[in-house]
Structure formats: C-alpha cells, structure tokens
C-alpha cells in the first residue's frame, strides 16, 4: 500500500475507494446531532432525573460507543459535583450500587461487554439507562428491567455514530443539572459541524481542505497526538482511534501534563532522527497538538515548551485549535477534523476506511 496524495483530489478514485460511504457518514454529523437531540427529548427519561441526582454516572461502552462517556465527562468539566466514569470491560467496579446511574451504550446493542455490564447493573439494583438499536439484546435487558431506553437510529459502523450515542447523554446531564446546555447550544454544535464538513468536502482541493491537508501531514509518520485540556484530550483519543479503524494506522495519544512525564522523551529517540538520505518509506515522528481555549496556565507553558523542544529537534509539529464557545462545540470541531483526516488518510493509501476485518476475525476466534 503506497501513499498517493493525488488520490485525494481525484473524485472518481475517492468514490471508488469509499464504497460504503464513510466520507458521507462523517459529513452527516450535523444531521446526527439534530436527530439524536430530538430522539432524546422524545424518549421518556423522567425516571432518570425524577429520582434525583445519582451518586455517580457510570457509562459502559466499547470503542466508538464508549467514547460517549469520555465526551460527557469532558463537556461537564471539572466543576461537575459527581464522578463520571467510563467502563470498557465486562465488569462494573465493586463500589457501584443502587445509588449510581449506569448508562449502557452500544450502537448495535450487541457488544458482549456492554450487555454483561448492563445485566450486572440490574442485578445490583443500579439505575439503568440504555442506548442501542431497537430490538437488540441491550434493548431486551432494559425492557426486562423496566429501564428507560433511547433508540439509536444511525446505521453503519459504531464509530460513525458518535453523536447519536453522545448527545442523549448530554441531554440527561442537563436534566440532572450537571451542565448548562440548551437548544441553541445543540444547534450551534450542528452548525459548527456543517462548517467543518463544507471545508473538508471531497470536491475541495488539498491545498485549502483541512481534512486532506492533515491526512498529508499524517502520512508516513508515527503521529503523537496531544490534547491541552480534557476536551482536547478526548479529541486526541478519538483521532488515534479513528486512525486505527479508518486508516488501519498506528497512533499515540495523550494529555498535557501527563505526556510531559513520558512521551516527550520520544523526541530524543530513533524516530525523531531524520536522515535526508534515508529511504523515503521510513516512518518518522510528528507531533499533533490539539489546543483548547480553556487551558490551565501551567499547561499553556508546558504546551509552548513542548512545541519548541520538538521543533528544536527537527520533529515537525501541527497545531489545531478548537473552535466555538461551549465545550461541546469545541470538542465537535476537533473530532470532525480528525474523522475527515483519518478517512482521507485511508483513501490516500488506497484503503477502504469502513471494514474492520481484524476486529471481525478476533470476534470469530474468541467465539469458537
């Protein structure tokens, strides 16, 4: 598989290389926000908020579904008066009990880990809310427990349904008084996503298309993706995950200041050293700094110093700044750019971004 940047501006090759329409799915993010917001409002969530504020919120989910918990925690911020924990496993932590709210999230409703956690939550007497495809095993668990259920109507890969899975959680948090968000904020998020989709549209040429430009900077590198705030860190994790699944490509992610205690040392390693006479196919390090407007003063100093250190050592740096006022807006712009970039990266390598054959094979192996 060779990197051919000319593919990115060849409309026929983009269409032929993306038969399942991952680019269309990413471009539909704004519609997904509006639809999922409406569905969440129409669902009967009175029992979730009517029983008062829980001791904690535990979001159970895997992969593209599990990130909904990270998004909820980042959007609520440090001021939230209860812990928001994401569980990516078959078991609930031992401390979770009847006073806690467990939100089980699975686009297909079939993720065995999430179904197992939902069943355990019912046995422990936890408050339960489920988000999944109607008629799925997770839906059945919610029905048997008499728990509220929000149907997920977005099809395709779970990673392409990030807003269908995340927006209902934000609605629940608002109902519980954990954050300030109204209809205007959700519409502002949708408009931000529309703007990014317009700038990253396939017909827009690489030199003005931020999604294609990022893909060209990612190609041939080992990307280290750092976030400068909890919001930006969730976006960094999403970028890495999307590069893995869409691009079939490795990536490392982290958050400042933690990365300054480990990953920064890679600036002095073999992948940071560049030889102009070396084989062009050799991979080299590149730093992608995802920035937020709300950063701790010490994080700002660390971010600036990290960028200077990378540049002093010849490690190229790309900085991407979140756009918008509300944390949900800023997170949406960063995520959308990463979704487009990872899809264009796959297409530039001649890879269909949709299939995840390795995951399918793994599931088959463990089911035998």
Task: Describe it.
This protein has a five-stranded parallel beta sheet with strand order 2-1-3-4-5, sandwiched between helices. A four-stranded parallel beta sheet has the order 7-6-8-9, with helices on both faces. Strand 8, helix 12 and strand 9 form a beta-alpha-beta unit. The model has no long low-confidence stretch (mean pLDDT 95). The protein is built from 14 helices and nine strands. It is globular, with a radius of gyration of 21 Å. The chain has helices spanning 11-17, 22-27, 29-42, 46-50, 63-76, 112-124, 137-145, 162-175, 183-199, 210-218, 230-245, 297-312, 327-348, 357-367, and strands at 57-60, 84-87, 101-105, 127-132, 149-151, 221-227, 252-255, 284-291, 317-321. It has two domains: 5-20 and 202-348, 3-Layer(aba) Sandwich (Rossmann fold); 24-181, 3-Layer(aba) Sandwich (Rossmann fold), CATH 3.40.50.10490. Helices cover 47% and strands 12% of the residues. With 368 residues, it is α/β, with parallel strands linked by helices. The longest helix is centred in the last third of the chain and has 22 residues, at 327-348.
């Amino acid at each position: 598989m060779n990197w051919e940047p000319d593919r990115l501006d060849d409309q026929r090759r983009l269409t032929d290389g993306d038969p399942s329409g991952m680019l269309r799915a990413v471009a539909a993010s704004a519609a997904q926000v509006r639809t999922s917001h409406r569905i969440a409002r129409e669902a009967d969530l009175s029992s979730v908020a009517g029983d008062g504020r829980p001791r904690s919120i535990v979001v159970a989910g895997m992969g593209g579904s599990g990130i909904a918990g990270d998004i909820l925690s980042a959007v609520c911020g440090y001021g939230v008066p209860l812990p928001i924990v994401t569980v990516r496993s078959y078991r609930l932590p031992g401390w979770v009990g009847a006073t806690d709210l467990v939100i089980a999230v699975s686009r297909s409703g079939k993720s065995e880990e999430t179904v197992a956690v939902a069943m355990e939550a019912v046995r422990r007497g936890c408050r339960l809310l489920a988000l999944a495809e109607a008629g799925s095993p997770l839906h059945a668990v919610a029905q048997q427990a008499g728990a509220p259920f929000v149907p997920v109507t977005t099809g395709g890969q779970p990673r392409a349904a990030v807003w269908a899975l995340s927006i209902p959680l934000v609605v629940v948090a608002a109902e519980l008084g954990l954050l300030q968000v109204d209809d205007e904020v959700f519409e502002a998020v949708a408009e931000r996503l529309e703007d990014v989709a317009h700038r990253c549209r396939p017909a827009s040429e690489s030199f003005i298309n931020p999604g294609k430009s990022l893909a060209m900077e990612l190609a041939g590198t080992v990307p280290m993706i750092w976030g400068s705030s909890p919001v930006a860190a969730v976006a960094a994790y999403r970028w890495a995950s999307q590069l893995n699944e869409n691009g079939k490509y490795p990536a490392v992610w982290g958050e400042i200041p933690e990365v300054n205690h480990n990953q920064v040392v890679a600036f002095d390693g073999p992948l940071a050293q560049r030889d102009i006479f070396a084989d062009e196919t050799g991979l080299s390090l590149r730093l992608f700094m995802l920035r937020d407007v709300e950063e701790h003063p010490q994080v700002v100093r660390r971010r600036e110093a990290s960028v200077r250190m990378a540049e002093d050592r010849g490690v190229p740096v790309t900085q991407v700044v979140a756009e918008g006022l509300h944390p949900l807006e800023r997170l949406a712009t960063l995520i959308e750019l990463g979704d487009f970039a990872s899809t264009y990266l796959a297409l530039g390598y001649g890879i269909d971004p949709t299939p995840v054959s390795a995951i399918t094979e793994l599931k088959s192996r463990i089911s035998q």
